[in-house]
Each structure stands twice: as C-alpha cells, then as structure tokens.
C-alpha cells in the first residue's frame, strides 16, 4: 500500500539568498530523482544510507535533512530509524520525534511532499521552505542532521556549518554527503570526464545541459576532505572526519557537536 504523506505539513518561511541557484533547483526538480538514479546507477541510495547511519540517529530522535530537495534522503533516515526498532513496522511518529526536510526550492519541496512510499513509517514529516544559512529552528534542537549534495551548493559554507552546529544538540552528529573534491589527479579526471561525457549529455535529453554543466564548476570550487574537516573544527565541532566512498568519487563529512 502506498501512502502520500497523510500527516506531513508544509511550512514556508522567508528566504534571503542566491536567486540563481534557487531558480536552477526549481527548474531541475521534475527530473532530479530520475537523473540521480540514472547517473549513479542507483549507487546514491547506498551512499545516502551510509551517510544516515553515520549520524547514529536512533528511535525517538528529532532529525533534520538540510537542503532536502525532493526528499531523497528522508526514506533512508526513516528506514534507518525503523531498523533501530525491534518492531520495524511501527509508524514513524512512534520511532522518531519528527523528521524535518528543509529546502529553499518550492518546486523541490512540492516533489518531496507528493512522494509516495510503500511503508507506513513515512509519517510525521514536515517540509520547511527555508534557508540553510538562516535555519528557522531553536538552538540545540536536533538529535541528528543530514545534508546530501547541499553544502557544495550553498553560497556561504562556513555560515551553513555554523547554523548546523547551532541547531544540533551537544554530542549529536551531522553527516554531509557530497562529491569528493579529490587531490588525486586520476579521481578528479574521472569525475570531470563523467560529467562531460555522461552527465551533461544525459541531462541534455531533458533540456538541462547548461544546468548540469554547473556541476563541474561547483565541484572545482568545493572543499577537499581535509578542508571540510578543518572548516568543521574551525566553526566549533568537537570532532570531524571525512570518509571517501564510491571509489573516491563521493565523500562524507561526519562531525560531532
Ligand atoms: C543537489 S540538491 C540535493 C537534494 C537532496 N539532498 C539529495 O541528496 O538528492 C541541492 C539542494 O540544495 C538546495 N539548496 C541550495 N542552497 C540552499 C539554501 N541556501 N537553503 C536551502 N536549500 C538550499 C537546493 O534547492 C537543492 O534542492
């Protein structure tokens, strides 16, 4: 049986930030999920599940997915939480205090809120239209935070990390999955070759080649694993560790408040 978020809510807040990036993510929203599956050959699901498990989220936790987009991370959070339960068929509201997905793209959130899932544990989810650089939540509010392919896209990475730290409870973890900006020439060449020869041509079928060309530049301008660890420690996280996954093409920063 499929459920279309019967108890999810949609909370808009005011946003002050990069209009061009917001427009880009609004444009690609209808095909974003399909392209992810196609371009990663389904591997992104494994990487997302690994990232969620590294938060060490457990039953009863309040979880935030920053830059949730079309909510591709939320099923993995929910699945992770349900697997922590001896009765994994419990509804999510009995497993988690709440899962919130935040994004500044209204179109992505529309896709998120219309997703249907086959398990009854995807309830008690709230969608918040908001800015990762000015999170509309109280200090020390969340037990676990995930962010997938979001940090690379925000205009101020330091501010985003400071905001995550502010709303994360002491002792809790954030797990940030993204492309790995590698120092290895071979790995970075493979990434760029794949973008030029696979990602952009496939995106062009959907009329989105220009939007996906932005990917190469954003990875070049992103931080290496060591730089991400340093950024996390600089803003005040107590520990930070970057893991290379997917043959070094992806990376996941796990940091503890
Ligand atoms: C590449 S998508 C990732 C979506 C999803 N997390 C996933 O893993 O598939 C990046 C998302 O970041 C969002 N985003 C970028 N900057 C943002 C900001 N300042 N505040 C909120 N969302 C932002 C975009 O709207 C987009 O949905």
TrEMBL record:
It catalyses: demethylphylloquinol + S-adenosyl-L-methionine = phylloquinol + S-adenosyl-L-homocysteine + H(+). The keyword Chloroplast applies. Its main location: plastid. Its EC number is 2.1.1.329. It is found in: Plastid, Chloroplast. It is an enzyme of class 2 (transferase). GO terms for cellular component: chloroplast. Belongs to the class I-like SAM-binding methyltransferase superfamily. MenG/UbiE family. This is 2-phytyl-1,4-beta-naphthoquinone methyltransferase, chloroplastic. It comes from Trifolium subterraneum. The lineage of its organism: Eukaryota, Viridiplantae, Streptophyta, Embryophyta, Tracheophyta. The gene is MENG.
């Amino acid at each position: 049986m499929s459920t279309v978020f019967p108890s999810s809510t949609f909370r808009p807040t005011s946003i002050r930030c990069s209009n061009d990036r917001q427009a880009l993510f609004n444009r690609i929203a209808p095909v974003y999920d399909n392209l992810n599956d196609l371009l990663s050959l389904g591997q992104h699901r494994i990487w997302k599940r690994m990232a969620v498990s590294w938060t060490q989220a457990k039953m009863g936790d309040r979880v935030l997915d920053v830059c949730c987009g079309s909510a591709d991370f939320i099923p993995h959070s929910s699945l992770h939480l349900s697997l922590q339960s001896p009765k994994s068929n419990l509804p999510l509201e009995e497993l988690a205090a709440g899962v919130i997905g935040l994004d500044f793209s209204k179109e992505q959130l529309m896709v998120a809120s219309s997703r249907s899932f086959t398990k009854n544990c995807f309830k008690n989810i709230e969608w918040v239209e908001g800015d990762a650089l000015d999170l509309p939540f109280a200090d020390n509010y969340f037990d676990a935070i995930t962010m997938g392919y979001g940090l690379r896209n925000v205009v101020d990475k330091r501010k985003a990390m400071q905001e995550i730290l502010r709303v994360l409870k002491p002792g809790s973890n954030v797990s940030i999955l993204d492309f790995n900006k590698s120092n290895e020439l071979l790995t970075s060449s493979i990434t760029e070759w794949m973008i030029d020869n696979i990602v952009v041509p496939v995106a062009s079928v959907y009329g989105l080649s220009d939007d996906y060309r932005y990917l190469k530049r954003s990875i070049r301008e992103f931080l290496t694993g060591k730089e991400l660890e340093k950024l996390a420690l600089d803003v005040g996280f107590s520990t930070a560790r970057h893991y290379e996954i997917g043959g070094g093409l992806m990376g996941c920063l796990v940091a503890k408040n």
